[in-house]
Amino acid sequence: MGAALALALGLYVGLRPAWAQPVPGLELRLAPTDDPQGVVDTVRLLVLLTVLALVPAILLLMTSFTRIVVVLAFVRSALATQQVPPNQVLIGLALFLTFFIMAPVYNEVKVQALEPYLAGQIDQEEALARGSRPLREFMYRQTREKDLALFIRMAGMPEPRTRDDVPLYVLIPAFVISELKTAFQMGFLIYIPFLIIDLVIASILMAMGMFMVPPVMISLPFKLMLFVLVDGWYLVVKSLLESF
Fold first, then answer.
1. Which of 18, 86, 111, 223 has the highest CB neighbour count under 10 A?
2. What is the count of structural domains for the chain?
């Protein structure tokens, strides 16, 4: 006990000079300037920081992540395993599947926009235009015409002649609801076999007079056995990859 007190006292005495040191401060101030280019660069920096803050939303709404994570959530819900697999595992798997599916799009953006921009061959505006083109093509392939027409009509726009005439604020929500519909269709097909198991187990329990036994508790092992026997994760991931 005495040794512990001596050690604590020594640490306290040794750290006191460090506590006495002033904490560095950060000061932001606006000052008049005669350099318009400096103002433009500052505004561009603020815009870039804003875009970086929106990266999670871009990942969610402009890639295959939405469909994948919704389908995986349906799988867990159909199995009735509560929090197994945990959210961290489902989101991690969805992220890596998204990276795998979006790899060709990323490579196209890298070749057409990123590398020429870093080499100084094109300016920032041209790089953004080239970089958004592969992503727009990906979203167009997965967007239903009905959903796209809805947002074009609600935006009061004339009928676009080409795909480039459709702005992103119209294309992105149309793409998202198309992805949600596809994910719900896949979720319905996933639910059917497990729903049949629940109905069979519930009928057997009622016939045996075991009304107080929850059917979900009895059917869970049979659901897991069926899912393992048919190699469920392989089939789910295969269906997701082929759906794109």
1. 223
2. 1
